[in-house]
Design brief:
- The protein has 71 residues and is mainly alpha-helical.
- The chain has a domain of 43 residues.
- Helices cover 73% and strands 0% of the residues.
- The protein has 3 helices and no strands.
- α1 packs antiparallel against α2.
- The chain is flat.
- The mean pLDDT is 79.
């Protein structure tokens, strides 16, 4: 059986992720206008890039980490 979510669920997740990304960038990141926005903006970008890839490829990153952690 293929347990991956359908197209509409993936699009909804990406839309919510885009909304959250914009909120965090305006509050803490590059668009905040503060000095620390550059570092925080880059960290936020990396976190959301990982989340987008996990949504697109339906990768269970926690299972992957548990596999390497158990070794």
């Amino acid at each position: 059986m293929d347990d991956r979510p359908g197209c509409l669920v993936g699009l909804l997740k990406l839309t919510l992720l885009k909304w959250a990304y914009e909120f965090f960038q305006k509050t803490f990141g590059w668009k905040s206008g503060s000095c620390t926005g550059c570092g925080c903006g880059f960290i936020i970008f990396l976190i959301f890039l990982i989340l987008v890839l996990s949504i697109l490829f339906s990768t269970d990153w926690f299972k992957l980490v548990q596999t390497f952690w158990a070794v």
